[in-house]
Amino acid sequence: MNTSAFINTITHTLPQKATYTWQTPSNIALVKYWGKSNPQIPKNTSISFTLNNCHTITTIEFIKKAPEEIKDQNIDFELYFEGKKKDEFKPKITEFFKRILTYCPYILEYNMTIRSKNSFPHSSGIASSASGMSAIAVCLMSLEKEINPNLSTDFFNKKASFLARLGSGSACRSIEGPIVIWGKHPKIKESSDLYGVKFPYKIHPIFEEYQDTILLVDKGEKQVSSTVGHNLMHEHPYAENRFIQANQNIENIITILEKGDIKAFINLVESEALTLHAMMLTSNPYFILIKPNTLKIINTIWAYRQEKNSNICFTLDAGANVHVLYPKNEKEEVEKLITDKLSKYCEKNHYICDNVGFGAKQL
Ligand code: PMV
Question: Whose CA is nearest to atom 9 of ligand 1?
């Protein structure tokens, strides 16, 4: 599929009024996306677990404009976050709407009211762009489906992911679950740089119930945004090798996920997390997002794993928080480790218990 497949030409009558509510999850990458070209095209393939409890719920109300209002070709919307009008969030969403205008020209015909809330605290250091952007994308697709009821579920999901990607790259992995791949890869013929697809091979049951406890080491705003970080990969001395390594890791993880090879999973996932941060350390300008407590947690996890022969491991996204990953059958012991030894490294002892989920849900 190329981008032209996603262009909507309005051929059907548009409804006067419509309201849709969707819940979309966050996701955590196992093989990381870091480095892109325009417009949001990844330099390597990435793969993620879709989460369950960390999600955004968004309602969009569409009210058809009067014909004289449409002539101005303005994108008109109001935005409320957790019940409060948030004009400071509008520029990012306006930019997103501008990027998708070719694909969703009908948005010019509506006054839109967007109401959004997150299941996780806004200032938790958890990026809300993946769940936030994917929620807007599926609401738009619901309108598109009403305009054109013949849309297949496959097209609906692909275009929702395609639109979400234009809002925030990793958001394209938040439409389906439990595991999503984004970025063209020779071993996955359905894969695309334009949208995420469900992992097309068999998944060992252990990974369908995987647990992710997010240790909130630092709830503040990141000092370096992921947009800046991605851009620093352009002149990065190790970038080309990193992209080759990531694509090789995708090939390896296909077999790991099929076979349920947890030891190999742990090795690959932790190496990916540390490599992501190594890219940050070796960018120019260089930067560090992990904190002393991130390292204390990692060392505690390693010591515990060795002592107990546990299958606990960690991954990181672009921040200091630690995602602790483990199979469901080790939940009790890991919860004990977290309360006894790890939560003390979290801001206000806060952490979020999550697990692998199945994607966007219409409410
Ligand atoms: O989607 P962005 O532009 O916020 O980039 C996300 C990058 C990482 O979270 C670090 C990795 C990933 O694949 O999600």
Answer: 317
